Amino acid sequence: MHGQMCYFETRCAAVPDTNEVVWMAWDDSSRREIERRLRHKTRMYDFVSQASQVVARSASPEHLFRHICDVAVNHGRFDHAWVALIDTGPQEGHKPQWRGQASASKGTPLPASLDFYLPEVSAHSDELSVGLFQGQIFRTRGLPCTEQSPQWIQAAVTAGTKGCVVIPLRRDNALVGHLFLLGRRVSDDDPEELSLFEALSLDLSFALSNLHHKAIHAQDQERMRLHAAALESAHEGMIVLDSNQHLVSINRAFTKLTGYTEADVLGHRPEFLLSQHSQ
User: What is the pLDDT of residue 162?
Assistant: First the structure.
């Protein structure tokens, strides 16, 4: 009807003591559409809820990426999900490239390589390109596809999977990549669903920032351990001072050469060594 699918329910009942029947029919499309939207929204809430658990449990970006893709397919019922990080390259003028990190699919997988690049945004750029470069959430029921489109777009459109959601990922407020979701049932006009994706973007970005800080802290701790090991194994007497020029550490060679232990010198300024030597 008017180019749209409609659903009708019917009832038929015999009229007693006659050869007649009463047949009734009514449009049931609205109720079915409400039920469809409810199922879809329930699925999205389940996806975001499971994603929050992944964020809380992830010990590394690799773990986060792998499991968020699994959750998107198994709970969000998307056909494909993958994470791609932006590689700007070391050379000036290098085109930004999105490199696939982890993926999950239901049924036929996407192309083996999910890497792609896009030209810089211009007045002729489509909404997807603008969203990718500007770090905005992108939703559509029909992916734009041309001969110049990335391979994954062409494969998705050919397979009939034209619905797409792109969620930006940030680390310390800097755009570092995106979570791509492909499915046949994508809503691009539901403000409540947009809020869910915005919350998911914030959660994933917070997790990436937190994991990055933990990695830097672990590297600093390892560097300090190596420095301490080098200090301790040195044959020359060595001391470590804080910003106020107070001794905070010595090595075994220092104790062997001077006779002073850590208990004797910690918290003192090194000038006492000169006074002892002058005596």
Answer: 87
AA identity, residue 259:
G
pTM, full prediction: 0.73
CA 36 to each of CA 39, 47, 74, 187: distance values in angstroms, whole numbers, following the listed order: 5, 17, 18, 11
- 209-217: long-range contacts at Cβ-Cβ below 8 A with a sequence spacing of 24 or more? 209/170, 209/171, 209/172, 211/58, 211/59, 211/60, 211/61, 211/64, 212/61, 212/171, 212/172
Strand locations in the chain (E): 8-14, 21-27, 80-87, 97-105, 116-117, 138-140, 163-171, 174-183, 239-241, 247-250
With tokens 């020359």, the residue in question is 236
Each residue's pLDDT tens digit, 159-190: 888 899 999 999 999 999 999 999 887 877 88
Can you state the angle between helices 191-233 and 29-57, rounded to 10 degrees? Answer: 10
